[in-house]
Amino acid sequence: MRGQTKAWSEREVGLIVANHMFMLAADMRGEPVNKSEQRRILKIQLDNRSDGSIEFKHQNLSAALVSMGLPYIKGYKPRCNYQHLLLDEVTDYLAQHPNYLNELAKAPVADPLQPSLDSDIRIEDVFVPPPDLIEFPSQPQKPWLTKRVVKIDFARRDANNRGLGKLGEKFVVDVEKRRLTGTGRRDLAKKIEWVSDSIGDGLGYDILSFNETDDSERLIEVKTTGLGRFFPFYVSKTELRCSEDMCHAYHLYRVFEFSSSPKLFVLEGALSKSCHLEPTQYQARAGQMGTDD
Question: What confidence category does residue 4 fall into, taking pLDDT thresholds of 50, 70 and 90?
Fold first, then answer.
């Protein structure tokens, strides 16, 4: 059996996890990382692994981190079919470095400031295709048994960061004005309304814009992160229902990499058709069903 085809040992996985987490921390701080040099150093410690095998395992690690709701290194696109040992080793690493996630949360990438759309950015370069849906391996979710949990929910931090949310919405307002103006529809650009700012949250969308071809409305919900294109986000019950009831007009703009070179992709129509939706919270009222007083 060739060395690069055999399963990675626990020792090897521990080594690449430590290396990956080192690079992730530097990436989140905005510091340059020489991935080739890091791979060369790591390769010496591994059991005859090829460069391709090491790169693939880093991509597996990105997928594992995303499945745990954690940031990932932008240069390593998530790829699934990873060993469950990866999840165990990441969890062990976090247990051994209890301040690691707090340091990531303080990093500039996790709390970006980007006040407006750079005038030098071409509007066609801002829009990118949506990512392919990643099917994560099934895994037991029983923290009450393992007593090992991820203490920082980065997607929730994005959702609760009102400053980031407003900056992202303002960014999209600027994008939409430039998009419509660039198609010769300055009249429609003037009619754009930032409804979450003028009316308030709770409508199920943030911005009222328009389609340049037929003047029809475009209801835009904005979700912003400083992290990568594959990072998950939260949607509310109202947003989900609005996307279903107004599927002909609904657009979710997912703004990502906001601290460096902000881009966005668009999900049109009902979110249940374009997203994997996982319930995370329930509203509860005390009382048993089907019992008499």
Answer: very low
